Amino acid sequence: MKKILAFLLSACLITVSMAACSGSNSNDEADVSSDASTSSQESSDESSSGDESSKETASFTTVEEGKLIMATNATFPPYEYYDGDAVVGIDAEIAQKIAEKLGLELVISDMEFNSIITSVNQGKADMGMAGMTVTPDRLKNVNFTDTYAKGVQVVIVQENSDIKTLDDLAGKKIGVQLNTTGDIYATDEFGKDNVQQFNKATDTVLALKQGKVDAVIIDKAPAEVFVEQNEGLTLLDSSYADEDYAICIKKGNDALQDAVNQALSELIEDGTVQAIIDKYIPSK
Ligand code: GLN
Fold it and tell me: Which ligand 1 atom minimizes the distance to the CA of 135?
């Protein structure tokens, strides 16, 4: 019991420890060239970019004129995942609404989660939106907009697993998605040797099904989707580490950040954001 408490506490205090242990080289500097692909999402043409463009469009520039490029990792249902060739989900829909408000065409650029911040900082994307948690370490590299959703970390195991509580995770192999908060917590709590990193959330689940890892630590919303889609998997009752999701934007790009925040606050105020979340995560 004490150990569980310690775990909970350390998860809560992650802010402090992350700030303390953030070394010189951040993983966010990792290679961005990988298998990125882009797909253009349909956009409404209400406010085309003529002379009559809104205040916002006049005051900021984007990587490509008339476009809002969103870097994401589409292995994270229900926030972003593929439906055929299109990236759909909560983030894709909110981003579409933001783009419409700014009079821009949304372009979704799918890449590894670990490459999103680099992509934004290298000017390859205007923003990163990927169920991304605001953390002190990330705030050193990038700015975040206001929060638009909440997350929490959970543990997926096989139904017949002997892991029943967080305590039982000690000494087990834990699968995580590289450089996510799940990765940070697991490594911090159980040590690097007990953690196996994957580039895609879906690959962590595959490894769990194949018995290559004993548990997966990941955000609750995708975890619930994965458990539903994959027979034989279940969630531990305990969850931990409340998190805030926000959109990351390159430091110094205040005009774009202000414009996105303005659009976001309107979409939160008029209930659009909640309606999109409820559509993908119906309350029980
Ligand atoms: N919320 C987690 C993080 O920001 C996971 C995000 C993701 O895997 N897309 O690290």
Answer: 4
